Amino acid sequence: VQLQACGGGFVQAGGSVRLSCAVSGINFGINTMTWYRQAPGKQRELVASISSGGTTNYTDSVKGRFTISRDNARKSVYLQMNILKAEDTAVYYCVLPKWRSRDWWGQGTLVTVSS
User: Fold this and answer.
1) What pLDDT score was predicted for residue 59?
2) Residue 33: other Cβ atoms inside 10 A
């Protein structure tokens, strides 16, 4: 299983970034996919999830600003992040949860939001 995330970078507060994650090695369409993040000095937190059927969930701090989506044909999951705040600064990880008794993590992509 491989998860390759990209799209991070430096953005000003109020701006937008779109993260992408390409997944290989699994039957992508039947699996829930998630995005986590880890800010400096903080624990990792679940940001958003999307089920195989397209049901989405978000942590409260990003509701209304972030959108998770998936393209099963491209075996990819995305995180559109709008109205970014300094507190969104973190390394973002694409994660395949609970597949074959473990979670599978991508390498992470850094998003830095300047205020």
Assistant:
1) 98
2) 25
